[in-house]
Amino acid sequence: MHNIIRILATDLDGTMLHHDNEVSPRNYRAVERAVNEGMLYVVATGRCRSIVPFSKLPLPDYLISENGAVIYRGGTEQVLYCQPVAAEQLRAAVRIGKKYHAFVELVSDGRIVVEKQLLSQAGQLHLTKIQEDFLREKRYLTVDSFEKYCDKIQKNQEGEEPFGGPQVTKINIICQDAEGWQGAEKELEACGCFTITSDGYGLELTKKGVSKGSAMKWLCSFLNLELSNVMAFGDGSNDAVLLKHAGIGVAMDNAGEAVKQCADYVTGSNYEDGVAQFVEQYVLKQAI
Description:
22% strand; six-stranded mixed β-sheet; alpha/beta; 288 residues; globular
């Protein structure tokens, strides 16, 4: 390894976290020691800010959230970079999601927004434990209708909303079966205005061109660094661009084959503390 690594970037789900939303002591210590050696720690996740478990993580210097749509400074709410979805594109995504009887979530200003009438569908969906907990604990904002919410978004984007209105930066479309997922994905791809990633029945949409990789490129420029100075860890399709373009891209053993092909190395699974395994061997050993 000849790259000078200045940034250690980790995904959360399937990478830094175990299935129970916990960070192992070994992963925590490895990242903390790397930071003590002078590296910056960046969390790069598909989650929005409100569901990032900051209290369980080493404090990040920067948070890349929502698959690269927003960058925050550290654990704060200070937004450095934001790529909102246009109102008309938002309407199209909602319409297609509803056509296939999907559960649609909008991510706005770091929080998940759901439509009241759609909450009744939650019990029929392929939700992860984290999503089930999130719904059960009612940690979301509700709106009467997405149509009216899109109107507010449009007024904001046209400068008519007083004091700055909401923005939507990510859309989650959770389908009930493979047929709905495939149909929705095909129509959304035909729109040509989204970046779409998926690991299962859920489709994650951001503005076209937005990815964890594009956000990291912006952050590196902001910090006067290069992508070659980044060591990144991930397991999902939303990590692929970042792993491919980082100076050192490391896929977890639990990653799919397509993601592994984008990486320079493969480490242990998230259950085996693969982040710590790699950092201990290739970062901390060299610092001694």
